[in-house]
Each structure stands twice: as C-alpha cells, then as structure tokens.
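User: Some background: our group keeps a shared notebook of sequences we're curious about, and every so often someone picks one and asks for a predicted structure to add to the entry. Today it's my turn. The entry only has the sequence so far, pasted here. Could you supply the structure so I can complete it?
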Amino acid sequence: MRTATGINLQVWALRRMEALGRQLRRTPSTAEHLATGLRGEREALFHLRTLGYTVVARRWKNAKLRGDVDLIGWDDEWLCFIEVKTRTGRDPMAPAESAVNADKQEMLRKMARAYLRAFPEKKRREVPVRFDIVSVYLQPARVEFDVYKGAFGWQ
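Assistant: Of course. Here's the predicted structure to add to the notebook entry:
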C-alpha cells in the first residue's frame, strides 16, 4: 500500500518495529539502573521509619513541574523533602550525595513549594521545612546509609 507521498506503509512499519527492537535491546542497563534506584528508595523508606520518620508520600509528582520528590515525611515537627541517591558501592571521591547538585536542589525547592500550596496559608507559614538527602549503598552483604538532615536550604 502506497500513500500519496509514495512511502510503503508496510516497509515503514517494519523499519519502525526494528528501531523499537534495537531500543529495547539497549535498555537492560537502564532498567537495571532504575531498579537499583527503586530498591534504594525502598531501603531508605524503611531505614527512615526506624529513625522515627513518618513517610507520607513516595515519588511525589506535580503535573506542572518536571521531576519528583523521592520521599516526603515528618521528622517530629519538621516536614522533610527527601532525595535518595543509591549506589552499588562506595566511592570516596564521588559519594552518592554529591549527585544532588544545584539544579537538583532547585527542582526540589520548586516541588516543595508546590506541595506546600495544598496546606492552608496559616499552616504553610508555620510548618518548618527541611531538605534531607539519604545516600544508600547496596553492598554485597549489607546496606549502608548516610542521612544528611538539612542538607541544603531554601536559598
């Protein structure tokens, strides 16, 4: 079947399917990377609970903003926006928390502002907010955590 432009739709469909197949064959490393991140978030969630946090949201998103907040929870009176960074090993030259750069911090601040808009205005001004980072190291025999409370602020 040919269209007005002369392109054979069957050939086009076959080429497109081949391209999609190539993409799928390339994704195992990406899928593995995502699975590692999800496992780290789950491990961090349970670890934070043992530290007394009450987690109220996981992977929170806002339709108008790009990105998500890994965990949102209360640590006593503090509302914490928590970024989780997971690695399969420790590298002293590049710890996991170093991946939370200025751009990531600004994205988290925007997400926090959006989350807080759901609070009544008076409560919004009264609730203390903190940005925490949890570095998760998935070691072969154990999982290790570094928790940085108040890792960065609103500025």
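Suggested note for the entry: The chain has one domain: 35-152. The mean pLDDT is 88.
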